[in-house]
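User: Hi! I'm working on a homework problem where we have to compare a predicted structure to a textbook description. Could you give me the structure for the chain below?
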Amino acid sequence: METATIGRRAPSLRAGEIWASRVLTLLGYLVAIVAVGAVAAAGAPTAAALGHGILLVAILTHAGARLERARQGSDALARGLCGLALVPLLALVGTALSADLLPAAVRITLVALSALAGALLVARVLDLTRAELGLRGGSAAAQLAVALTGIPLGLLALALGGARAFEPLAGASPVPLAVAIVLAAAVQELIFRGVLAAAFGQLFGRAGIAWTSALFAAAAVATGSVGLVAVLALCGLVWGWARERTGSIAGTTAAHVLVASGLALVAPNVLG
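Assistant: Happy to help. Predicted structure tokens:
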């Protein structure tokens, strides 16, 4: 009887240890992403680029080592790390293209296309299906309802001073900028509500929404706008829940476009 009792307890303890290890590992990377973002917000782009580069290499090396040890089976943390690598990659490319040598719309488009290439590569490595990435239509009424959340969330971001983060885009040609914003929003939704939602959902179940929301907000720390970071954390929770309920990122992408275009285009051109 004693042996049987120990046998029943051991898997439970092991599961708890694995869960704690996952949380501490990912929390450490999240803190590092926020710290490097703060460096960028402080006006040190070179140091920030170096930090993002180190993070990218560290995360991919960590993921590769775990995948190598897990040849005989799937490693959920390694899959999560592969998705997580997209966050410093997005920031690194953005920092590298932050110079005013190119028009703002061109810079945003290049960052989005680079991130898209990375997202598609990670999705292929993780063997994610279109459904797991949220690439399906779903109910038109449901997607419209999700899209409309962009209006109150955008107004909240505006009230909290989020438009200041988009001041460097002032003077950009509105049409190319609008196209670039739509592309960037679509790519970010593919990354956060697609790849990361699938990877972290496997790791933590529904709690994965909180993780992807935290990463979504952490990616905006470099803007230096506390209000925008707070609103994006809320957006991550709302859109993550909506993506899980509807199975699609169509509505969240439209909502994202509304928030970003409101702050980058409507606020400066209409409200001054």
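For your comparison, note the following. Confidence is low (pLDDT under 50) at residues 1-13. The CA atoms of residues 230 and 258 lie 17 Å apart. Good luck with the assignment!
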